[in-house]
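User: Predict the complex.
Assistant: Input components as received:
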Amino acid sequence: MKKILTAGAVILMATLAMPAHAELDTDKLKGVKPTAENHPLEKIISGYEFRNKETQMLQDDDFDNPAYIWVDAGEELWSTADGAAGKSCADCHGDATTSMKGVKASYPKWNEAKGKPMTLQQQVNDCRTERMQADEWGWESDEMLGMAAYVASQSRGMPVAVKTDGQMTPWFEKGKDIYYTRVGQLDMSCANCHEDNYGKNIRADMLSQGQINGFPTYRLKWQKLGSVHRRFKGCMKNIRAKPFDVGSDEFVALELYVAWRGQNLPVESPAVRQ
Amino acid sequence: MKASVYVISALAAGAFTVSAVAGEVTAPSQVMVNDEFAVEKSLTGTPGDVAAGRDWFANRKLGNCLACHQNADQASEPFHGEVGPTLDGAGDRWEPAQLRAIISNPKKIFGDQTIMPAFYSDRTGTRTAKKFAGTTILTAQQVEDIIAYVSTLKE
């Protein structure tokens, strides 16, 4: 009983102590300085910095990070043979802790054979169908999320470094165009929230810069690991727009452009967010 | 019924000037902003209901004004947004006709760059979800209700 009363008093005090205006001082947040001359942000800040201590702590310790259920499953799949060719990832790529180091930091990446950029998930499925003669994994399947997170986690701490020049240029421009185009009944673009208003609350949500260096990310709201395309869809639904499909050219272009907006941020996959 | 009573009483009082005839709803495309950045004519002719407007203000599926604006009158509702200015004292700062113009389509008042959605406009972004295509975020009467409510927010 006393415990309940104390807890109640703490919550009450916390409520009273909460300032009416809880806007974040983004000057005080850790970030990296953009190197590109035409970069729209003065400081690139990870979504981690916008979250509360409890959420940050879940990410800080791999034993607490719920995404590791998927990562561990991904590690096992890495050396499990599948498909008519009887091969596993490890048969070609060996030890992922060395061969996959830095891979995620460079994706989406140009694929010469396909003549377009591919996301990590698309590359995984390309290997599965072409080399393993196995079925594709669904975009948001546990297998795909686990594999993507396992591979991505080999780049943790390495700076995001996507290529946006040469053949990537039209895709970069397309992604930029999508980023700044207002859509949906609410008529908003990504920039309205994530460039113009980060650090402010929109109802209960603290707006971040929408950086994607932590994907696949475990979202507390989802109670699950999820892809960045799923997150894009959620934003578009919120503004009452018809979302693009996961894996669509539009989302690949947008992922490329948003990855560039986070150039040099350390890869945090698998991150934990609210 | 309620609406016609209002009109009759307004006529009787000789105060029937700019209000529309009850039942005649202004279509979203017909909302005319004047030189003073205001829409004088009621969208419905039916006076706004303050209590209803207070509900629409907080309702996440309707006005959801709290998503972006703080409002001390609704302190019991958690999580007021910070994207737009506080609406404490908005009733002192804006005339109802100005609020009508802003809420209907703020781009005509603040410029195209404003993040604020148009709550009663036939022009929205591209790719609007099927479910919402051809609709307005609020009905004309809900806009009138919110105008009536926000007009009561005085300092």
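The radius of gyration of chain A is 20 Å.
Let me know if you want any component modeled separately.
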